[in-house]
Amino acid sequence: MGYCGKPLDARSSSARRVCANCAALGAALGRLQRLTGELLLPVGDPCHVDDSVLWVLSGRGNLVTGHRRDALLDRSWCGQQLSGPDPGAPNECAPCRRIWQEAEVTRQTYTLPQIRELARWWPQRELDVFDDRAGALRPGDAYTLSGCDETHHVVAVADCIRGSHTDLVVYLPAMDRIADVRVRRERLVVVQRPGCIPVGTLSAT
Q1: Average pLDDT estimate for 114-123
Q2: pTM
C-alpha cells in the first residue's frame, strides 16, 4: 500500500500529481534515514574484569597496599569496603591474597568442571532466547552482548543491588575459565534461559 495507507495495484501511474500525504511521509523517512547514518553509538564498557587489578580501601589514604575485590560481595576479600581500583599499588594485602587463593582453588576444583559440563551440552538444551536488561540475569542463564563474541554462562550474581552495575561470575567456554564480570544493569543482552535449570544450582565458590 502507499505511505498514506491506501491500497495499490501493480500498474504504474502516469499521473503528474503526487499524493501529498505520501510525499510528506516519504520526505520525513528520508530525513530520518540521513540522520541515522550520522549517529555514533557509544563504545560499550569493557566486559571482563581484570582479576589482577588491586583496589584501595574506602576512606583510606594508603595507596601502597592494594586489596583484591570479591565481586559478589562488593568488598575486599578481607572484608573491608573499597572505593576504587588501585592499579599502581606496589604491595598486596596478605589476608586478601590468602583468602582469594583458597576461593580460587575451590573454583578450579569444583565449580569449573561443573559449569564446563553444562556448557558442553548447552546447544542440545531447549532454550528461551530473548532480549533483556543485564539486571535480569540469574544463575543458570547464558548471555551475549555487543562488543564481545563470547557466550557468558552465569555461575553467580551479586546479592547487592545498589549502584548502576551488576556483578557476575561467569564461565567463558572459549577461554575455559571462570571470570568476574561487571556490566551496566540497563545494558541490553541476549539471554538464553533453559527451563530445566533450577535457580541456585551452581556454586561460585
Answers
A1: 89
A2: 0.66
